[in-house]
Design a protein that fits this description.
NAD(P)-bd_dom_sf; alpha/beta; 6-stranded parallel beta sheet; (-)-isopiperitenol/(-)-carveol dehydrogenase; SDR_fam; 42% helix
């Protein structure tokens, strides 16, 4: 009997990098990718993943991370650029942009170069958050950084499309990660969990990473249960 579409492993044989995968959405995404057959550059189990320390604000470390992945796994099919700073009172503007924008741009740059060199029609999935679709009078630096990510995704998708590389982003609202719960909302993860769960975002990332979205690029997939539509 043919394998059920619902049981099909969507990333079988794919090599994936998940940044910011130590906890929260990144960790959930890494586990989901592995369950769908991916080899993930993150520590989630023998033969399924490898852990790599990387400061995304340092481009040389990002380059080394991508090169290590290609050398050890033979190729790179997908990168999930997930790093973020969620302390909305953070005053170090340059460091905020180094992480949210420059770090993500470095991941896109070096992943794309590896995909092109390896003749891989890959997928790049970034994180923008709903801040990329609205504004805020208090946390201007954070919102600007998220709008910049959306600009990066839309521009990179046009430039890399000729190489068969898709670039998209996921924009979650409030997810029950410890960082978001404590810093942004002043509530514990259990309280926030009543709103959204990490798996909801991970499912969206899986869709954009897999061939299910082979005709989708330059897209901002908002995961907010309709909050922005109200």
């Amino acid at each position: 009997m043919a394998e059920s579409v619902l049981c099909k492993k969507k990333l079988e044989g794919k090599v994936v990098i998940v940044t910011g995968g130590a906890s929260g959405i990144g960790e959930t995404t890494a586990h989901l990718f592995a369950s769908h057959g991916a080899r993930v550059a993150e520590s989630i189990g023998l033969n399924l993943a490898s852990y790599i320390h990387c400061d995304v604000t340092d481009e040389e470390q990002v380059k080394a991370m991508v090169e290590w992945t290609v050398q050890n796994y033979g190729k790179l099919n997908i990168i999930r650029s997930n790093q973020t700073i969620l302390d909305l009172d953070f005053s170090a503007f340059d460091h905020l942009f180094a992480t949210n924008v420059r770090g993500m741009a470095a991941c896109v740059k070096h992943a794309a170069n590896a995909m092109i060199k390896g003749h891989v029609r890959g997928s790049i999935v970034c994180t923008a958050t709903v801040a990329a679709s609205c504004g805020d009078k208090k946390h201007i630096d954070y919102f600007i950084s998220r709008h910049a990510v959306l600009g990066l995704v839309r521009s990179a998708s046009q430039q890399l499309g000729e190489h068969g590389i898709r670039v998209n982003c996921v924009s979650p609202y409030v997810v029950a990660t410890p960082l978001m719960a404590y810093h942004a909302l002043g509530m514990d993860a259990e309280q926030v969990g009543k709103l959204f769960e990490e798996r909801h975002v991970a499912d969206a990332v899986l869709f954009l990473a897999s061939d299910d979205s082979e005709c989708v690029t330059g897209h901002n997939l908002v995961v907010d249960s309709g909050v922005l539509a109200k």
